[in-house]
Amino acid sequence: MSGKTKVLIGVGVAVLVVLLFVGRIIGWRNHLVDLEETVKSSWANVDNQLQRRLDLIPNLVETVKGYAAHEKEVLTEVTKARASVAGAGSPAEKIQANNQLTSALSRLLVVVERYPDLKANQNFLALQDELAGTENRISVERKRYNDAVNMFNKTRRKIPYSFFAGSFPAAEYFEAAPEAKDAPKVKF
Fold first, then answer.
1. CATH superfamily of this structure's domain 36-181
2. How much is the pLDDT for 151?
């Protein structure tokens, strides 16, 4: 084997190693992109369920208004919280606004306990069931979103992914509001 052949083989091996390394780097970056898209998709599912709840609230408020006209403060609070959710832009803003809405809705349900006729009203019962189902869907989607955030954030901190982390900011968890730890008190 001549010296020229050895050089060509050496260059060929070096090019192959570089190509394999570059391919691996591309693979790592693409994995982060996949995880980031999973987070975005999961957030879209959460957002979809939050919108579903948002759409139910005006009907619920109108039904309660007929029975509890003097509970205006609670109804106004629910309406304002709903408006802040509708006006929220980023996931962080939506999380905060939805925590306020959850708190307002829990106070509304305490008001409902004071009105036995309202609790027996078929329209209200149907809306309440729909809202309960939506809350369950929100809970499931929130968990899926937080699982996706967890996987993404853990992966972006690991070597070799951490070398690309600068172009992938950490995702935020959807955490419950501090008030959620205190269940509303229902008194008869």
1. LemA-like domain (1.20.1440.20)
2. 95
